Amino acid sequence: MAITLMLILFVLFLVLGIPVAHTLGIVSLLFVMANSFPLSLLSQRMFVGMDSFPLMALPLFLLAGNLMNTGGVTDRLWKFARTIIGFIPGGMGHVSVLSSMLFASMSGSALATAGGLGPIQIKGMVEDGFRKDTAAAITAAASTIGPIIPPSIVFVLYGVLGGISVGKLFLAGVVPGILMGLSLMGYVLFLAFTKREQLIVRPFPDGKAFLDALKDGILPLLSPIIILGGILGGVFTPTEAAAVASAYSLFLGFLYREMDLKSLFSVLKDTARTSASIMLIIGFASSFSWLLTSSGASRLFVSFVLGAGVSRTVILILLNLALLIVGCFVETNSAVVLLTPLLVPAMTAVGIDPVHLGIILCVNLLIGILTPPMGMAIYVVSKVASVPFHQIVRSVIPLIGCLVVVQLIVTFIPQVSLFLPNLLMR
What is the 3-state composition of the chain as percent helix, strand, coil, each rounded to the nearest 5? Predict the structure, then answer.
């Protein structure tokens, strides 16, 4: 009864528009008071939830992304992508997707990708003949690749809470992230060949243009090689890799002479503000999850799944539908913190690999940032492009369809995500 009441209150408060962190805190407090638990339990569980060495990677990856936005790295990645694939039909649309994939390999955040590259991407696509709403939709959809291609903040959260190797999760995201990018590029090609957008065809770059773009882009492109190479080579942990990424981004900012002490202070302040809000959610969500687990919710959920008497295929279909719905209403990081303690034991019990589950969970939740009522990526690009929210929603629907197809491939062909971690991290 207590568990049911907790969940009803949680959903009710979210519907009323109360922020997720406050909702988690209020519901946890009411549960503790109703069961005569000491109030100190809440603060203890909050601290335990945040007191984790791997979680230190979260603010450091956020810092790396913000430093790249300020330090001129995003401009160079855009120019590099424009040079090597801008001549393909639908040019700037492909460039937007590829630049998001490249930036994703350094920042690990969808909203950082949308906010950092969004203005450049939308301007470039509009100049190429795309309508503003289509350009904004492509930018928003491409930003979802950010947390899938390593490094990834959501994978850090999932790995820490589920007791799963963050390095394996990083590797598991590589192929699905590339497939997501290719699916979006496929839709851009469709727009170009059906002439639904009046697009400019750009010439094939000459050797000098290619070498100039490579010279400008080579140092930023080394970042993912350093991060993944260091983790796979055992040189540093994912948390230490985040610190290296931040230091490298800072070095590039000063090397390109596009960062000074004033802009550095602004970056640090923004990172601290964002990190604090995320850590507050993690703290309250940790208390909430612990209360659910200690009250037997995890055991009940495992028993329910095992006793349902349905095949694993049906379970995967229902899981995908449920996660897509959750992603529409709950912010991605909050959803990962809430769902991981419940899903990992239950899905492992029916034979689903926890690394595979992590990819399913994260891709579904990230599709949610493209869908109302939350639609955080759409809100970001709507502000950047000065396009009404509802217009972008209409244009993003086919792109959501592309991502759902990739999600189904990832769900029902586990080796798409498990091939690399099984090969390189046995």
Answer: 80, 0, 20
